[in-house]
Amino acid sequence: MASTAAFGFKEPSLIRTQAYIDGKWVDAKDGGVIKVTNPATAEELGTVPELGLDETKQAIAAASEAFKTWSKTTPKQRHDILMKFYALMQEHQDDLARLITLENGKPLAEAKGEHAYSASFIESGRVAEEAVRTYGEVIPSPFPQLRNVVIKQPIGMVLSPHRAILTPWNFPSAMITRKLGAALAAGCTAVIKPPSETPFSALALVELATRAGVPPGVINVVTTQANVSAVGREMCENTAVKKVSFTGSTPVAKMLYGLAASTLKKVSIEAGGNAPFIVFDDADIDAAVAGAIVCKFRGTGQTCVCANRIYVQSSVYADFASRLAEKVAAFKVGNGLDENTTHGPLIHDRAIEKVQRHVDDALAKGAQLIHGGKRLPGPGSFFAPTVLSDVPPDALVNKEETFGPLAALTRFETEEEVIKLANDTPVGLAGYFYSRDVGRVWRVAEALEVGMVGTNTGLISQAVIPFGGVKESGLGREGGHGIEEYMNVKFIAFGGL
Q1: Long-range contacts of 314-318 (CB under 8 A, 24+ apart)
Q2: Is 270 assigned a catalytic role?
Q3: Domain of 302: which CATH number?
Q4: In the prediction, which pLDDT does 155 show?
Q5: Which of 22, 48, 172, 383 has the fewest C-beta atoms lying within 10 Å of its C-beta?
């Protein structure tokens, strides 16, 4: 059990140490628990239940039963509940941001930013407001006796299903609301499998949703770690589930997609990225450096849309590298609760091992170390923010997503060359570039094989945009237009008129 005093909350009742099924807070039947630690201190924050297959089936059954009534509520009713939920999130924003820092490690300023981002998925015109705008249409018929009408309904209305939600640890609050808000607005019910590293944010959000008036069974939370394979399989193969939404790595996404295919479920997947960040010789270098800092090092490099490969045109390469290294050297790495901290820890030691592997590989292949390059001493999972220059295209960092504070700089000569380098990857989530040439801006934005492009900006995430990728970065879109992912389009032909 967690000691609520250890969290330092204004309202300790937001700390929930049990899973949530059918309106009840529950423990695992066998008493199993998952330890949750603070990555900045390696200290245990508390525990949550280690649920298994039986509890998952109970959660699915509860969501299926609740769907019968929730799907028949009016869009206005759902809108009002979501707006109450949003108001409660704003009322408790300090505690919710602190919770993000405690279990994820990101600096408190970033955690507050995530909370605002998270709440915007509930409040924004794409969710709460769009709940009352799920418009149908009338299609002119070529036959005088027919009238063609299209309506939209929550997914799987006949079979009383729900939506399975599987979320990552890097945005423990925002990745819940980005999926849950659209599902609730559409009239769907949900079973959430939060990450075992950061479950408390999900549980706190469900507590507030319940206070806002979300009925029992509409939201269920299954916490698991050792049993994640069995739980994930059940969510994907259970015939009552008609929609699976997943954010995480590409290998896991492929596995879940294969399982979901057994019942032809609708699937939304946001999988791995390997974002290129391109600096052309006509760029505003100061702006490009600032963009690289926010794009590469936000969340200590642990975001799916962060820059992973930084390509700089030769004539401005030395200038850009020097200015970037100077900024990185000024970072203050430490506990996110310290107001002087600019960058926090990685989520666990396995993440450190991957960053170190990428650094060592690049150096072995001829790259030069400008700053950082190793784990920092002391408790917690800290790695020094790192800048490498002259990184060859065949280095691991240019082939794999690092998910850490490593800026790897590669030189290029021509626009055609860098487009080829940028697109030489099986994934395509986000891409960024800096240029003041209007023609180049359009050419490159259209040529990059990604779902989202940042032109002269390193920060693209917003609740109102259609968020998602192409190639092996996933299927579907969340955020803007996201409610459409959780509705079925039904055509009705009225004859005999």
Answers
A1: 314/281, 314/411, 314/412, 314/413, 315/281, 316/279, 316/280, 316/281, 316/283, 316/285, 317/409, 317/411
A2: yes
A3: 3.40.309.10
A4: 63
A5: 22
